Amino acid sequence: MNIAGVVLAGGRSSRYGKPKMFETYEDKYFYQYSVEALKQNSISPIVIATNEKLIQYFEQGNVEFIIEEESDEYQGPLFAMYNAFSKITDAEWFFVLASDIPFVSTEFVKKMIDKAERSHSDAIVPIYSNTLQPLFALYHRRNLIKMEQLLTENKRKLQLLLKEINLLTVPFSSNESIFTNINSPEDWDQYKK
């Protein structure tokens, strides 16, 4: 099974006030935790999907970059995923991780890959607190057709894709720190305490 890792790192972090992926936890940038969790599971290639304004801030070693073209309006994760998937030609599956999740673990990635190896689903998505977590998920290449169709119709919400494809959901307990959402510097300061 051929899996590429895609770290989505082109968001605006508008609620946070600065790009969250460059916040640090234990002397590492947030985005590096996503890269390492994929790397430690022998996923290759690992691609960071970002934009022209942010690329200069990333450490360049052992990852590839896919740059989104400049746009006046925010394109969103569905577009970023489609853009990355369509440029990675030799992968059957894509393991998508957000770039602002410092508590993601190697074990989590392994558990999700194990589910993909036995699945005929279009996507394998965790559920945490009764909510789908689509930016911690595996997507099969066959989703490209549906993604392109939605984007052509200017339907940019990732939830619209999830409603139209065959999902395998993986439940996680409500005390999992992996999915901790940090929306503001105050949230992060509070969490560190």
Automatic annotation (TrEMBL):
Pfam families on file: NTP_transf_3
Function: Transfers a GMP moiety from GTP to Mo-molybdopterin (Mo-MPT) cofactor (Moco or molybdenum cofactor) to form Mo-molybdopterin guanine dinucleotide (Mo-MGD) cofactor.
Residues that hold Mg(2+) according to the record: D100
Major localisation: cytoplasm
Domain of life from the UniProt record: Bacteria
Protein name: Probable molybdenum cofactor guanylyltransferase
EC primary class: transferase
Family: Belongs to the MobA family.
Gene (UniProt): mobA
GO CC terms, sorted: cytoplasm
Source species: Gottfriedia solisilvae
Localization in the cell: Cytoplasm
GO molecular function per UniProt: GTP binding; metal ion binding; molybdenum cofactor guanylyltransferase activity
Catalytic activity line of the entry: Mo-molybdopterin + GTP + H(+) = Mo-molybdopterin guanine dinucleotide + diphosphate
